[in-house]
């Protein structure tokens, strides 16, 4: 019987374990030696440390014009042939398929598997790919490599392997839970994002994927990161499910000092939504992969601060907006898609209602730092214009060794990541401010109105006779015209209504508000940054 994925496995590395010795003791020692030196995370750490001591060598692009000039629609025609996925004929819970080089994916990455502790190399073979109706000369397919890989698993259908994770481009990766579609992305690391000096993009240059057993519930991937300023070792442990979980371990070795180190960065897309309606006529009420940033600061919580849980509705500004939130002890942050109701999007093709939220929980104490939110103007939904990341208070210097571990959740069940004691902003809507005249006619008054619906346990536990209030602040570039809260008799919870006037339209307006009963805080802090000229 032929083995369809035979092309991928081309070489087995020399054994790293000592040869068997004579006698029982020798056999035991040989087994122990083999067990001790099976390939693992520490091997990647050693490799990262070694190359950090060397000068950075940029990998060269190797694409002919027939592949580098492809448009996206043509590049999408290239895929691993049916039946050619690695491990596809072995009845394993995970298979691997590979991304072909092409378009701007012009630098190959090395991919290996780890089988019984030993490294096996995987080589590119064009016979494993289908090219559709593309006419790529045979000679242009020589000496190419992989642009990345994807992991498949029978998550949604026991009889079909579905893509659940992908690594492609720089240090980007995406993951899916059950019945989700790709939206926000994770990145291994970000350096100097949104600085005038320009961003540096670290890239995963080499991967090792541990071959699973037939009953494995998880998949382990090791990765080597490299860039002019640093090198690093990564371990990803993928656990698919209704909410897919990825445990990330990283160890970094600094070649140079950097001004901004972005840890656990996330990227997403926000074009428009009820919080920032579109000026164009469009049947879709919203187009976004995420609609807000949620930050949980355990240090602020310990102090009884009003800023321990902060929700930041996203915006598509006219010009770049970068701002920070100080964090004493980060417990979690993420880009969330708080609505999964199809009628909030009405898009049968892109199914924004199935885009997952991504929540990051640090493992261990990362110390003091800032959560940075970067919002970039975009004219359409093809650009990831939202970036968020954690950066340490002290910028790393040359020679520093850093390690960060965290858990990532890809979920459509956001309530489990909200405060158990506070209610949350379920939706934000923006409108012209208006007043109702004595003749019942509504007239605009030059203000902007924000309508925020709060739901959750902080409101459900209210006792009879509670006095609900709004605590609001608009900073020094605006005037708070009105703030009030009313019971949402239609859907439960409470509705906060704010009317504000901005003093200088060329500058952003920062609006913060939360609900309270006397001195008792009942909701997370809703923090909206109205873009300049927006």
From TrEMBL:
Determine if tRNA-binding is one of this entry's keywords: no
Which Pfam families does the record cross-reference, listed alphabetically?
MdoG (PF04349)
UniProt keyword annotation of tRNA processing present: no
Which stretches make up the Glucan biosynthesis periplasmic MdoG C-terminal domain? Answer: 39-529
Q: In which pathway does it act?
A: Glycan metabolism; osmoregulated periplasmic glucan (OPG) biosynthesis
Q: Which InterPro entries match?
A: Gal_mutarotase_sf_dom (IPR011013), GH-type_carb-bd (IPR014718), Glucan_biosyn_MdoG/MdoD (IPR014438), Glucan_biosyn_MdoG_C (IPR007444), Ig-like_fold (IPR013783), Ig_E-set (IPR014756)
Q: Where in the cell is it found?
A: Periplasm
Per its UniProt entry, which superkingdom is the organism in? Answer: Bacteria
Q: Which UniProt keywords apply?
A: Periplasm
Q: What PANTHER family does this protein's entry cite? A: GLUCANS BIOSYNTHESIS PROTEIN, GLUCANS BIOSYNTHESIS PROTEIN G
Q: Which family does it belong to?
A: Belongs to the OpgD/OpgG family.
Protein known as: Glucans biosynthesis protein G
- What organism does this protein naturally occur in? Chromohalobacter sarecensis
The organism's lineage is: Bacteria, Pseudomonadati, Pseudomonadota, Gammaproteobacteria, Oceanospirillales
